Amino acid sequence: MAHLQLENLTKYYKQGKNEIRALDGVTLDIGDGEFVAVVGRSGSGKTTMLDLLGLLLRPTSGTLMIDGTDTGKLGDSQLARLRGTKVGFVFQEYNLLPSLNVLENVMLPLRYVHDRTDGRKRAEDLLDRVGLSDRVRHRATELSGGQQQRVAIARSMVNRPSLILLDEPTGAVDTETAQQLVTLLKSLNEQDKVTIVVVTHDLDVASQAKRQIRLKDGRVVSDEPVVAAAIA
Question: Of 71, 116, 136, 167, which alpha carbon lies 20 to 30 A from 61's?
Answer without folding.
Answer: 167
